[in-house]
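Chapter summary example.
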Amino acid sequence: MKQRHPFVLRSLPYSFRVGIALLTITLLGGYIVSGLHLSWHYDNRDEEPGLTMNDIIGAYHGVQAPSPLVAALESGHPEDLSDPERNAMLEWLRGDRLSQDYDNLDLGENAPSEIIAFNCLDCHTRTATGEQSFPSVPLEYWDDIQSIAYSKDIQPAGENIVAMSQHAHAPTMAIILIVLGWLTVCTRFWKGLTGLILMVAAAGLLVDMAGWWITRDIAEFAYAVVIGG
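The structure predicted for these 229 residues follows.
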């Protein structure tokens, strides 16, 4: 008995194949825009420019980190800072009036701007030189200081938000992968390669979707979300 020739895309009318190609291009464009949207959506959650892993971890797990200034002061830097001045700086950084009290004249010599000017600017200016200087961490102006003054407290999205997003994304993306897998089977591409690509994509989608929930308890799993996604 003569074996029936398997269905292939090239057996379809030309207009049909063009339509599939245009839809695939549209789908690719949609994924590119989705990537941009994700970058913009998660960007700057940690108040650092650009999309960082802290942004991703913060979205799914949450991030709590003291400000670099607090960490430096608590570690005893600078060494010659008096205890009253150190306590005044820590009290200011742990309060909720950072910008208002930075150069508050009512605080006199205990104003943070005054303490920083007398104790830090020998090393922390853009033109500082010497072994102990840190021109890469200037403390001359409030605009310099505010980026390292605030503690980070990024709260993750609520479970209802994650569920609402996933109930739309998981079925849709799985169906898209099934359709794309079926289309590649109907081409002349090597089936072993297309099968491997489909398997990797499906595994990545599963890891990505599961990672939304696992990362809530295990922050390090955010890396799997990024790789799977």
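To summarize the output: The first strand starts at residue 63 and ends at 65.
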